[in-house]
Design goal:
about 500 residues, Penicillin binding protein transpeptidase fold, Beta-lactamase, five-stranded antiparallel β-sheet, three-stranded mixed β-sheet, about 45% helix
Length: about 500
């Protein structure tokens, strides 16, 4: 059977049209990709990379680490110079993550192949990114659910990063920000958490274990599955041997080494004070460049005071009395101790709540302060609302202030008809700080001047003591604000005050 010549020509024309259309589509695709790549390349600034894995370590006056905090409390990070990282750790990470790191332009041929495959697999061919690409990924916090466009962007950015930043700088970015599991970002944080060592102290076996975690942080870290993590360590050591970084004997010795993994969780020291500092200095959103804050806090004194406060509540042992708070200020109003509750982790007493910053009823503990007219401005800083039976005392103070020529009435800040019925409220921290002003304006010596007060409804007891150098404030009561029928400030809070005075008097 012969084909009609006209039909053959027509089919040829149709085929030519299809081929031309395909060529146009391909060329258009290439132009679009090229244009997109050029724009992305030009717009991207390698210096704009901003890692949000920064954290801040808070220390007491004696360099005791109290806690490490970050945004959402989701980061532990201690950046180090690359020169501090052992050669074994650097070689290990290159051997398993990016063998051609020092010679590639930020991407490799395998990566291009995976990208091409992902176009037809809806992004399912992930893995195997170069170290440079992982730096980009970490900086943009685009770790999960990355699509083909994301990966393509990473390649473009990685190429430009390599043209404007040295390989050592890129490696430093990676090691200081990659995730190692258990809230640890950066190799130093991982070394300190898992092995209780600085990264500079790690040997070959330890380096191989730590760097192996990065491939699957949630599983390979010791808090996940230690056995699986050790299997990954063996892979790292084998790759290091294959790349010529270590000898066979070194590999075998490292495999047989028993790692001293430390599973003890980090103690949250002085939690109420740490949270106070974090909020006051806005540390979570604006961490200091140094990553460290040294405070005036005395953690050794904190432990003593916390123990005394806890024992005092236990020994009193009466219904509903379940909590206590203590704040101690130094000569210049610096915070030495802030115990917000007897047990931060006890939900039954709402232990996380900082009672030194909560509004409580001071009772008669307020009146010695009212007699010091020279610190009137500080008194007005207190949110204090007198109850009805105190009105005569307040009137006397108002009259005295008028005689001194002070026109601002106490009622600006102090009282409404409703609050007269509800009682008085003042923050223990503010009250203590106001008495600190008294001590600074007096010629008081080292002898303690102390007194206490109890709320008229038997909900709170407060004691204050001050001398030339220190001021102590103590609250005793019920976290829920319930009435405590047997509450007695003289027999229940004053003994604790005197014990704390003894401990503070020992300070140098």
């Amino acid at each position: 059977m012969k084909l009609n010549k006209g039909n053959t020509n027509e089919m040829g024309k149709q085929l030519l049209k299809i081929q031309s259309l395909i060529l146009i589509i391909v060329l258009s695709f290439i132009v679009i990709i090229y244009s997109y790549s050029v724009i992305k390349y030009i717009v991207f600034d390698p210096k704009s990379l901003n890692f949000i894995t920064r954290s801040t370590k808070i220390y007491d006056k004696n360099d005791i680490l109290l806690w490490e905090i970050s945004k959402d409390n989701a980061v532990s990070n201690t950046p180090v110079n690359l020169s501090s990282v052992p050669k074994s750790c650097i070689q290990g990470i290159i051997a398993v993550e990016d063998k051609s790191f020092y010679s590639n332009i930020g991407i490799d041929a395998k990566g291009l192949g995976r990208l091409f495959i992902s176009i037809f697999t809806q992004g399912s061919s992930g893995g195997g990114s170069t170290i440079s690409q992982q730096v980009i990924k970490n900086a943009f916090q685009n770790i999960y659910n990355r699509n083909t466009v994301d990966k393509f962007n990473e390649m473009i950015y990685a190429i430009k990063l390599n043209q404007f930043v040295s390989k050592d700088e890129i490696l430093s970015m990676y090691l200081n920000n990659v995730y190692f599991g258990n809230l640890n970002y950066g190799i130093e944080a991982a070394a300190q958490d898992y092995l209780k060592k600085t990264v500079g102290e790690l040997d070959l076996a330890e380096c191989a274990y730590i760097v192996g975690i990065t491939q699957w942080p949630g599983v390979y870290n010791p808090s996940g599955r230690l056995d699986t993590g050790l299997e990954r360590q063996h892979v790292v050591l084998h790759e290091m041997y294959e790349e010529g970084y270590i000898t066979l004997d070194e590999r075998n010795n490292a495999v047989s080494e028993v790692l001293a993994i430390d599973f003890k969780s980090l103690e949250f020291k002085a939690p109420h004070f740490v949270n106070y500092i974090a909020d006051d200095l806005d540390v979570k959103d604006n961490p200091p460049e140094s990553g460290k804050i040294k405070t005036t806090y005395d953690y050794n004194l904190h432990k003593i005071v916390l123990d005394l406060a806890k024992k005092n509540v236990e020994e009193i042992n009466i219904p509903k009395l379940n909590n206590s708070g203590v704040v101690i200020l130094g000569k210049d109003s610096e915070i030495l101790t802030m115990v917000g509750s007897v047990d931060y982790f006890n939900k039954d007493i709402n232990g996380e709540f900082n009672t030194t910053l909560g509004f409580r009823q001071p009772g008669m503990a307020i009146f010695p302060l009212l007699q010091h007219l020279e610190i009137y401005p500080y008194i007005l800083d207190l949110r204090y609302y007198p109850v009805g039976h105190m009105n005569d005392e307040i009137t006397k103070v108002e009259n005295s202030l008028t005689e001194f020529g002070l026109q601002r009435p106490l009622t600006d800040n102090w009282c409404t008809d409703v609050r007269k019925l509800q009682g008085c409220e003042v923050r223990l921290f503010d009250l203590t700080n106001s008495y600190k002003k008294v001590s600074q304006n007096e010629t008081a010596g080292l002898k303690w001047i102390d007194f206490s007060g109890q709320a008229s409804n038997s909900k709170d007891a407060i004691a204050i003591a001050y001398n030339r150098d220190y001021t102590i404030g103590i609250w005793l009561g019920n976290t829920k604000g319930e009435e405590i029928s047997e509450l007695n400030d003289e027999t229940m809070i004053m003994p604790l005050l005197h014990k704390i005075e003894e401990e503070v008097s020992k300070l140098k």
